[in-house]
């Protein structure tokens, strides 16, 4: 089981309280599709992903980004049981969605950058440590049920 | 992975905007890397890695200078960083995975200090550039 110090929990909660899940989620997913274009392979039915402008404005991208980040919120509510929380989602991503777990790591890194751009210096090194740890734990949990 | 003309313009734009603050960006990125990815400290047992360390600042300056050099010679990064590439292959032998970690921290620093500069397109270009630098530095490893 992952150990979270009191400080790490506070740093995560403090940032999360100020996050606009819809905006950050949309931005994170859009940036994933722009910065790592091969990730678009999972979204053939999303319509126009032909340019960064198209991706940023794409309503399906926005909606899915919000969905993904909302789900992330479940991890934050259950920091001490992330593996259990994401067990079914892990199975889904393996069996139905066929997503290479490397993509979870890519999205996690993008999320850190989005948070950094929103919070500026308030996204301190300690904050970054806590959040990179969180995204790494989430990525691991989502990959855990792969077979 | 090839840097397009747009990528090159974007990267030059970033470093043009950062200008003389590149050293600070370098130091900041290194500090973040040591804190965010503690395993990276294993390459610096001879350094004082405490907060505000002069050695970290000095090393950040070197790292930034190399990135600026690469950006200024973006059509031939391998040529510009050839000596550094030799150094990393023969002497430093930093595991290739760590260049991605430093790259991530550099992007975070740009995001914290200059968010408006890091549009999605510039983010993509800068990420590609940092990957290219990492590739060059590890190219002679084996």
TrEMBL record, chain A:
Example GO BP: hydrogen peroxide catabolic process
Cited PROSITE patterns: GLOBIN
Keywords: Heme, Iron, Metal-binding, Oxygen transport, Transport
GO cellular component, one term: haptoglobin-hemoglobin complex
Top-level taxon: Eukaryota
InterPro entries: Globin (IPR000971), Globin-like_sf (IPR009050), Globin/Proto (IPR012292), Hemoglobin_b (IPR002337), Hemoglobin_oxygen_transport (IPR050056)
Short name of any one Pfam family annotated for the protein: Globin
Keyword Heme assigned: yes
Any GO MF annotation of the entry: haptoglobin binding
Annotated ranges, domain Globin: 3-147
Subunit structure: Heterotetramer of two alpha chains and two beta chains.
Protein function: Involved in oxygen transport from the lung to the various peripheral tissues.
Family: Belongs to the globin family.
Protein name listed in UniProt: Hemoglobin subunit beta
TrEMBL record, chain B:
Globin domain segment(s): 2-142
Entry keywords, A to Z: Heme, Iron, Metal-binding, Oxygen transport, Transport
Signal peptide: none
Family, as annotated: Belongs to the globin family.
GO biological process assignments: hydrogen peroxide catabolic process
Keyword Iron: yes
Metal-binding in keyword set: yes
InterPro entries with a match to the protein in the record: Globin, Globin-like_sf, Globin/Proto, Hemoglobin_a-typ, Hemoglobin_oxygen_transport, Hemoglobin_pi
Function: Involved in oxygen transport from the lung to the various peripheral tissues.
Name of this chain's protein: HBA protein
GO cellular component: blood microparticle; haptoglobin-hemoglobin complex; hemoglobin complex
Classification of source organism: Eukaryota, Metazoa, Chordata, Craniata, Vertebrata
GO MF terms, alphabetically ordered: haptoglobin binding; heme binding; iron ion binding; organic acid binding; oxygen binding; oxygen carrier activity; peroxidase activity
């Amino acid at each position: 089981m992952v150990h979270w110090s009191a400080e790490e929990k506070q740093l995560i909660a403090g940032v999360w309280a100020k996050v606009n899940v819809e905006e950050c989620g949309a931005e994170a997913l859009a940036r994933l599709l722009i910065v790592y274009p091969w990730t678009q392979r999972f979204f053939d039915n999303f319509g126009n992903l032909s340019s960064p402008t198209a991706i940023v404005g794409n309503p399906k991208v926005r909606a899915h980004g919000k969905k993904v980040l909302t789900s992330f919120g479940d991890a934050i509510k259950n920091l001490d049981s992330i593996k259990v929380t994401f067990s079914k989602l892990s199975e889904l991503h393996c069996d139905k969605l066929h997503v290479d777990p490397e993509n979870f790591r890519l999205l996690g890194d993008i999320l850190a950058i989005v948070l950094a751009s929103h919070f500026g210096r308030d996204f301190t090194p300690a904050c970054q440590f806590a959040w990179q740890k969180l995204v790494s734990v989430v990525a691991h949990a989502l990959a855990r049920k792969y077979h | 992975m090839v840097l397009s003309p747009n990528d090159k313009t974007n990267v030059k734009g970033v470093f043009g905007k950062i200008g003389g603050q590149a050293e600070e960006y370098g130091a900041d990125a290194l500090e973040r890397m040591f804190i965010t990815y503690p395993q990276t400290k294993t390459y610096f047992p001879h350094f004082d890695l405490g907060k505000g360390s002069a050695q970290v600042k000095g090393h950040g300056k070197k790292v930034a200078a190399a990135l600026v050099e690469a950006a200024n010679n973006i059509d031939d990064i391998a040529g510009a960083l050839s000596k550094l590439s030799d150094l990393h292959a023969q002497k430093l032998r930093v595991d290739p995975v760590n260049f991605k970690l430093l790259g991530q921290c550099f992007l975070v620093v740009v995001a914290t200090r200059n968010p408006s500069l890091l549009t999605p397109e510039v983010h993509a270009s800068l990420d590609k550039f940092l990957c290219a630098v990492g590739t060059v530095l590890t190219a002679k490893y084996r």
